[in-house]
């Protein structure tokens, strides 16, 4: 079953701002405002629907379409790669945090076990505090493994959807000059 594309429409004053190599964005990237607008629009539509990006400007020509499509695809592919690196870093931090957390658990639980059951109320409080602190030390590693990567995965998927989107340009008639 072929799903209908969802069109993301971007109106521009000049299409040249996207095609000029000396524009306000480095080569292969989009101006920040346009990229943010596309991300915001893509977030609002069904994740399963393919996307089509249509740039509308008075000076748009069919000759611009390929250069603009390449720029859009390159930009969002790079964004997806940055999010993939972030995911990799999160799991690297999770491994280090887990090692540190487990070391804390072992040391603190050993200290807690060294306090005898009949040591008195104060030392029993210390023993219980060491038990609690030992397991709290594992909180951040668990958060990294379970949840921290999820927003990055969302943004990476969104960027990949935009990188795969069909891109077209459309010319609009220039507004009449008022005299």
Features:
three-stranded parallel beta sheet, rod-shaped, mainly alpha
Task: Provide structural commentary.
This protein has 5 helices and 3 strands; from the N terminus they run βααβαααβ. It has one domain (6-20, 27-171). The mean pLDDT is 87. It has helices at residues 16-19, 32-43, 62-114, 121-136, 139-164, and strands at residues 6-11, 51-57, 166-171. Helix content is 62%, strand content 11%. The chain has 179 residues and is mostly helical.
List the helices and strands and how they pair.
Blueprint: E1 6-11, H1 16-19, H2 32-43, E2 51-57, H3 62-114, H4 121-136, H5 139-164, E3 166-171
Parallel strand pairs: 1-2, 2-3
Write a brief caption for the model.
The protein is mostly helical. It has helices at residues 16-19, 32-43, 62-114, 121-136, 139-164; strands at residues 6-11, 51-57, 166-171.
Largest sheet: 3 strands, parallel
Helix content bin: 55-70%
Radius of gyration, in Å, reads: 27 Å
Beta-strand content bin = 5-15%
Residue-averaged pLDDT: 87
The total domain count is 1
Count of runs of 4 or more consecutive helical residues: 5
| Main sheet strand line-up | 1-2-3
Straight-line distance between termini:
53 Å
């Amino acid at each position: 079953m072929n799903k209908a594309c969802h069109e993301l429409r971007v109106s521009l004053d000049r299409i040249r701002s996207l095609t000029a190599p000396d524009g306000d964005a480095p080569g292969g990237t989009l101006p920040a405002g346009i990229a943010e607008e596309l991300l915001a629009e893509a977030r609002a539509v069904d994740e399963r629907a393919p996307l089509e990006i249509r740039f509308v400007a008075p000076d748009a020509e069919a000759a611009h379409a390929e250069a603009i499509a390449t720029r859009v695809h390159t930009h969002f592919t790079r964004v997806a790669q940055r999010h993939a690196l972030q995911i990799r870093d999160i799991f690297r931090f999770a491994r280090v945090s887990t090692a540190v957390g487990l070391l804390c658990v072992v040391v603190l639980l050993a200290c807690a076990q060294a306090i005898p059951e009949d040591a008195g109320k104060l030392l029993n409080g210390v023993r219980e505090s060491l038990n609690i602190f030992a397991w709290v030390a594992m909180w951040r590693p668990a958060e990294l493994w379970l949840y921290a990567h999820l927003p990055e995965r969302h943004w990476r998927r969104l960027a990949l959807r935009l990188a795969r989107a069909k891109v077209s340009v459309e010319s609009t008639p220039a507004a009449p000059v008022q005299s």
